[in-house]
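Q: Got a minute? One more chain.
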Amino acid sequence: QVQLVESGGGLVQAGGSLRLSCVASGSIFSINAMGWHRQAPGKQRELVATITSAGSTNYADSVKGRFTISRDNGKNTGYLQMNSLKPEDTAVYYCNAQISGGSYTVINYWGQGTQVTVSS
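A: Always. Here it is, folded:
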């Protein structure tokens, strides 16, 4: 069993910052790519950022230059540093991770989500 638990969401004023964390626990042999997605009310879930096990990153155009994704492989933890937040960043943020339990099977796990609300 593997669990992903996000934390760090909350209410912040426009221009402020938040740091989200995503901790993976359970039967983990290795973690490949990790990512953050978000879903605003009435909208589809969208990709925010991804990071490979080697540290290569990719960002949605809407967050480039403001958000930074990182990970601590020793702690099985991923992070999303969000700066210069805008009201349009308001959404539930979900962490996902591609995890191997030791076999050749890699499963994509999702966290439960954490709410980020940016007030104008």
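A: The chain has a mean pLDDT of 96.
Q: Perfect, thanks.
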